[in-house]
Specification:
By secondary structure, this protein is mainly alpha-helical. It has one domain: Metal-sensitive repressor, helix protomer (Methane Monooxygenase Hydroxylase, Chain G, domain 1), CATH 1.20.58.1000. The protein contains 4 helices and no strands. The radius of gyration is 18 Å and the shape is elongated.
Length: 104
């Protein structure tokens, strides 16, 4: 493992102070997904199922945007302050993550 990888692994992530909040939100989303599966098993009306799927997608997007904001404010900002190849790598990584979120 390279030195930057070791430093990154040891350093807390930008979301670390709010880790429990993210975990709670994801558990809530997990429960919503289980509820959707139950709706399908119970032959619920299509539009009701689609409405719940839309709610789960919105909740996941909210978590993703929060994590992206944390990443930009912590990991990318730190790397840019350090400069060099690590800054370029973090900026490219953030750009690719934004592109994936926009496509989804």
């Amino acid at each position: 493992m390279t030195e930057p990888e070791l430093a990154e692994e040891a350093a807390p992530h930008g979301y670390s102070p709010r880790k429990e909040n993210y975990a709670k939100r994801l558990r809530r989303i997990e429960g919503q997904v289980r509820g959707i599966a139950k709706m399908i098993e119970d032959d619920k009306y299509c539009i009701d199922v689609l409405t719940q799927i839309s709610a789960v997608n919105s909740a996941l997007q909210s978590v993703a945007l929060g994590l992206l904001d944390e990443h930009l404010g912590h990991c990318v900002t730190h790397a840019v302050a350090e400069g060099g190849d690590e800054a370029d790598r973090k900026l490219a990584e953030a750009s690719a993550a934004i592109a994936r979120l926009v496509r989804s």
